[in-house]
Amino acid sequence: MARAGAAAKPKIPATGITAGLEKLGLRRPLDFALHLPLRYEDQTHVTLLSEAPAAGPALFAIKVRAVTVAFRPRRQLLVQVEDDSGRANLRFLNFYGSQTKQFERARDEGLTLHAWGELKPGYLGPELVHPTISKAPEETATAAPSETLTPQYPTTAGVSQTQLRTRITKALKDLSLSETLPVSDHTRHLPGLTASLQFLHAPPPDVDVGALNARKHPAWQRICIEELVAQQLSLRKARLARRQKGAPVLRGNGSLTNALIKALPFALTKAQEHAYGEICTDLNQSYPMQRLLQGDVGSGKTIVAALAACQAIEAGYQVAFMAPTELLAEQHYNKLVSWLAPLGIKIAWLSGSQKKSERQAHLSAAASDAHLVVGTHALFEDTVDFSKLGLVIIDEQHRFGVAQRLALRQKGNNPHQLMMSATPIPRTLAMSYFADLDCSVIDELPPGRTPIRTRLIADTRREDVIAAIRSAIAGGEQCYWVCPLIEESDTLELQTAIDTHALLTEALPDYQVGLVHGRLKADEKISTMRAFADGGLHLLVATTVIEVGVDVPNASLMVIEHAERFGLAQLHQLRGRVGRGQRESSCILIYGKPLSNTAKERLRIIYENTDGFEIAQADLQLRGPGELIGKRQSGVPMLRYADLERDADLIPTAQKIADQMLKETPALTDVHMDRWFGHAEGFLKT
């Protein structure tokens, strides 16, 4: 026992294998049991050197004949080996002196070794490059070391496959797992959890390897359902916890909302009316709304958000409206001022580039009499106070991290939250990662929006594209030219925004060409965008800072340089910057050769589709959910084993089981979630 007053000993950081296991999240016996293989090696039979397969690895039982360290053409360890059928060489380009001694000892003592690897032709004859070597038991020297397929686990530096297998085998032996899922029509045909784990860690050699690798084997199906159920439980509990929190009831009297609708120069679409109706109902509840408003590019989400803001203001509360970039935030601010200021609504504006005196004035307004506060991430800084925050509106919500959204929400007493996204979310993703949110979809475009014609042009025809730009400007139109990089890159030989601006300025001497990119100062960006919006610039060369929210109705031609380098969602967003006026609009995608298969597929999809939801579904298939939505953004633990595209048919089953557990066995729900998420983020934070 430490004596009184003694300083506590500092915690010694984990080292070696302990640190590696910590990094892998392996702490409890359960963690080891749930650490499942990536793939398998078939070491259940020994192959003679003369009968090695033409392709693929095999297990060989060999004896060492000679050990040599060669220095030409580079330092390497060469080990001559043989079995009853012939000879071969083992070649190691990276090796330790201890390995050399071990092979010399095996040669001197006549030991039989097992070597796992792919036998290929080499300069000195057949060879195995960096095979896996182990000592064969003398009593069964030519027998296979395993009666089951050998699992290969995800690992990290300092942790070997052998160490993992030893610990996992012990964990499985000592572990007693109770079943948490109910026996139902959905699970009756599948093996239990314990049986599935035992099988996947040591499958028999006669297993259907195709089904095993594709994770369609019943044992894998059980694991995937278990994990999906844990995720659905997490999302449902997050929803229930949210509904138990009190929130201000924002029941307006209709004075502002009706006045705004009456003043608009256009009529709302049926989809906009329906979406606002759902939001209005939520705002009338005594628990915080958490609704995602989805709509394709140009579908009119902002006016729906403005109506929600009016309802909150009618009820005597403030509204915070946050956008990811200063460019987009200022555009929202200007649009909201034009709509709402005539109704007597006071709007404050906060951004990182404001002068101190201007910022202080708006901070004071936010803390006192401002009805609506618009800004960027500056809104959730500690210096920003609200007098009576009732509604938070977040545009392009996927661009903000969990901690950022949570910080803004904590500035009020559980304010209602409306998140907007112009990046449509595929159904399978929404069912799994957004199941705790209420979703509204604006699935029709306002009347008058002209369809955008998409063209694919090779970069060898750049002069044709410049001619199209010249013709469009001569006809009174404005154009965008988007580039993926700002300056030259050593690794990507792409046409840059700066070079393109210089080239186009020279090629179009009679017209005004502007340049905007992320490294410009905020006031320079805003000044350039304002000049373009006011018609002072004919052509705007830009990086993807114009991807979201920029609205210039007279811009009818979009050129995207090196389109093969962009993702589908980006291409769709950029294309949506045109087609906002009465003119027929076009988007020219310039591509460089050679094209990878993935790039060809992306360009084909964007060329053939204009519907954002179809494009998002194709994007999910190409990239997978991990790239479309990460743990940092969603607050939901990413699935380790289930795959949203591959296992889409299991999600409804997981939802039904989760609902059944909450109703019939609520005590098991926390056990089940802890089993699968353990120390990870198990609950949705925001």
UniProtKB/TrEMBL annotation:
Domain Helicase C-terminal residue range list: 461-626
Keyword list, A-Z: ATP-binding, DNA damage, DNA recombination, DNA repair, DNA-binding, Helicase, Hydrolase, Isomerase, Nucleotide-binding
Enzyme class of the recorded protein, top EC level: isomerase
Catalytic activity: Couples ATP hydrolysis with the unwinding of duplex DNA by translocating in the 3'-5' direction; ATP + H2O = ADP + phosphate + H(+)
Residue span, Helicase ATP-binding domain: 282-442
Enzyme Commission number(s): 5.6.2.4
Pfam families: DEAD, Helicase_C, RecG_dom3_C
Gene Ontology MF terms: 3'-5' DNA helicase activity; ATP binding; DNA binding; hydrolase activity
Gene Ontology biological process terms, A to Z: DNA recombination; DNA repair
SMART domains listed in its UniProt record: DEXDc, HELICc
Region (Disordered): 139-161
Biased composition, class Polar residues, residue ranges: 152-161
Biased composition annotated in UniProt, kind: Low complexity: 139-151
Described purpose of this protein according to its UniProt entry: Plays a critical role in recombination and DNA repair. Helps process Holliday junction intermediates to mature products by catalyzing branch migration. Has replication fork regression activity, unwinds stalled or blocked replication forks to make a HJ that can be resolved. Has a DNA unwinding activity characteristic of a DNA helicase with 3'-5' polarity.
Family classification: Belongs to the helicase family. RecG subfamily.
NCBIfam families: PRK10917.1-1, PRK10917.1-4, PRK10917.2-2, recG
Protein name in the entry: ATP-dependent DNA helicase RecG
Species the sequence originates in: Fluviibacter phosphoraccumulans
Name of the gene encoding the protein in the UniProt record: recG
